[in-house]
User: Which sequence fits this backbone?
């Protein structure tokens, strides 16, 4: 459009009456200083709490009653946008909400202060939970208390550091400039009927002409091999959290192999650690490759367990990883995930949400569109050697942070082989 907005439409017939809106504007929280980080982090949330134009959140809910429509703003690390959905009948209301969220965020000190007090109380309670406090400490160690690190678990005092006026300024900077704003509409679309709505509501968004960009603010995870134990609480509960991470050139091929590796390791964790040892009641390995803001990977092992099982589980989990690195997966496990993935794919390609997400990956990250259509071929081409190779890359042991939560009264032996925090 003439104001710099780009709109991508994908008409589908998957559902008779569903339209999904996804959007992004490059920028995000990472563009701001440590002083502004908290005001930026909660800027979109605050607008959701205070409303748009003449509508408080309560007024807006009343106005939208009976309509099948929703929209909400977001500001993440590298981008900002409005996401939403509607029926065909209510699609103009969806566009109106987008317009107002971009142009008319509402300031309401009373609603802001009420929200702030509630958040402080909730986080005070949350941090009394041993596992929440443990994870909070884990991320402080992981990012070495870098003031620009992402806000994972906010502390009660963080909410007093938010400047609501600055939050509103940041919100307007991120969502109030239409230049290079991308909107993606997927679903029961009649393109010709959409065009006048797009022109009216998206084409009239204000624009400065300044190109939208995100930055790499230099935040990195701790390097080396480290460990720490954390004691809190009285219940006999422990939690193992180990993160393997590092910088790594990104390819979509390796990202697929990394996903397969996590699936296979989770099969072994369920079979051997939960069912055979009976030592955990959940958990697994999660993670993969990221392309932005710098190419990297992270693989997180999470195992909730009893304190008496920590050493046994760490040994068993390491043995599973070592086995994959040495021998690769069994043919049966690899075929199992291939079959599951292809079955899931054949369902997902008939869902509007799938296409909305994939189009955003293509337009924001530059993902290869052809891989959507080659998915089954790429999955079927995965070999035992591929997974073995990926395991040796991602579990090279160079950057490992291992932490264990114990009850406050637990007697534990420190691992002298790792650097302790």
Assistant:
């Amino acid at each position: 459009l003439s104001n710099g907005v780009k709109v991508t439409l994908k008409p589908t017939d998957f559902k008779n009456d569903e339209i999904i809106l996804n959007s992004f504007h490059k920028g995000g929280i990472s563009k701001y200083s440590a002083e502004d980080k908290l005001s930026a982090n909660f800027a979109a949330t605050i607008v959701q709490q205070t409303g748009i134009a003449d509508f408080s959140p309560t007024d807006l809910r009343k106005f939208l009653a009976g309509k099948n429509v929703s929209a909400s703003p977001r500001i993440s690390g590298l981008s900002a946008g409005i996401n939403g959905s509607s029926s065909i009948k209510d699609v103009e209301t969806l566009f109106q909400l987008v317009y107002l969220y971009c142009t008319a965020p509402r300031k309401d000190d009373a609603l802001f202060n009420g929200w702030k007090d509630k958040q402080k109380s909730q986080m005070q309670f949350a941090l009394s939970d041993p596992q929440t406090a443990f994870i909070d400490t884990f991320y402080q160690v992981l990012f070495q208390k870098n003031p620009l690190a992402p806000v994972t678990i906010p502390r009660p005092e963080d909410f007093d550091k938010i400047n609501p006026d600055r939050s509103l300024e940041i919100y307007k900077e991120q969502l109030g400039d239409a230049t290079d704003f991308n909107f993606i509409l997927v679903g029961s679309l009649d393109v010709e009927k959409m065009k006048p709505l797009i022109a009216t509501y998206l084409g009239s968004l204000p624009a400065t002409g300044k190109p939208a960009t995100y930055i790499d603010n230099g935040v990195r995870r701790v390097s080396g091999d480290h460990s720490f134990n954390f004691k809190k609480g009285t219940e006999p509960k422990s939690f193992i959290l180990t993160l393997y991470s590092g910088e790594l050139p990104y390819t979509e091929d390796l990202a697929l192999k990394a996903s397969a590796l996590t699936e296979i390791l989770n099969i072994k964790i369920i079979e051997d650690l939960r069912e055979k040892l009976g030592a955990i009641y959940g958990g697994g390995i999660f993670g993969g490759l990221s392309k932005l803001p710098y190419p990297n990977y992270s693989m997180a092992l999470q195992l909730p367990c009893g304190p008496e099982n920590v050493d046994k589980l760490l040994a068993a989990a390491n043995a599973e990883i070592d086995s994959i690195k040495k021998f690769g997966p069994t043919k049966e496990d690899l075929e199992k995930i291939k079959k599951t993935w292809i079955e899931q794919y054949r369902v997902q390609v008939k869902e509007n949400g799938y296409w909305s997400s994939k189009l955003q990956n293509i337009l924001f990250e530059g993902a290869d569109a052809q891989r959507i259509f080659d998915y089954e071929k790429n999955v079927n081409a995965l070999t035992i050697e591929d997974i073995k190779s990926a395991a040796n890359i991602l579990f090279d042991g160079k950057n490992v942070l291992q932490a264990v939560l114990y009850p406050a009264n637990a007697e534990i032996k420190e691992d002298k082989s790792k650097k302790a925090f």
Summary: Residues 252-276 form the longest helix (25 residues). DSSP finds 15 helices and eleven strands in the chain. The chain has a mean pLDDT of 94. Residues 20 and 85 are 4 Å apart (CA to CA).
